[in-house]
Design a protein that fits this description.
This protein is 30% helix and 28% strand. By secondary structure, it is α+β, with helices and mostly antiparallel strands. Bound molecules: zinc ion (ZN).
Length: 79
């Protein structure tokens, strides 16, 4: 089966991986709650594909940068 990663932020396809067998632990899916799974993983039986919502490098950098700013500048507002 195929696992297709799509950026949930900008909608760009990120990566497609071909696997014989789905190893949930390897992909980190076992860490997700049932709700998270339903939210980010969609299985398409017709094409035997699994679509996973993720973040591309650009969006990861953009979002990661914001979070870093919050961490760096956040405590200043306390004083
Ligand atoms: Zn993106």
């Amino acid at each position: 089966m195929k696992i297709c990663y799509t950026c949930e932020y900008c909608g760009q396809p990120i990566d497609t991986i071909e696997v014989d067998e789905l190893d949930e632990v390897k992909f980190g899916f076992d860490c997700l709650t049932q709700v998270e799974r339903q939210d980010i993983i969609k299985f398409i039986p017709e094409s035997n594909e699994m679509h996973v919502q993720s973040l591309c490098d650009d969006c990861m950098a953009a979002i990661g940068g914001q979070e870093e700013d919050t961490i760096v500048y956040g405590p200043r507002f306390l004083h």
